Amino acid sequence: xxxxxxxxxxxLDFGAFRKYIDGVPAFIAKHGGRYIVQGVExxxxxxxxxPERVVIIEFPSRGHxxxxxxxxxxxxxxxxxKNTTTSxxxxxxxxx
Length: 96
Hints:
CATH topology: Alpha-Beta Plaits
Number of domains: 1
Order of helices and strands: EHEEHHE
Oligomer: single chain
Strand content: 25-35%
């Protein structure tokens, strides 16, 4: 079943975050993922959720998404994101 990583984030240090922007697409592709939404500023339609930027990445399965997040070679870039942004990340499965 298709799975999605949904990232809500604010960039604290764009210069340092650039390393993540440049490096992460290769890891996403390595695990069969693709961007559905890439760093856009969302328009809040209801409620009090106020994300600054949103990314949605589609993977063929939950396993592909968790392998992406746990990939040992990805951990340095993951640390870059954690150190240069404030973020919230969720994993959800699709309907089909």
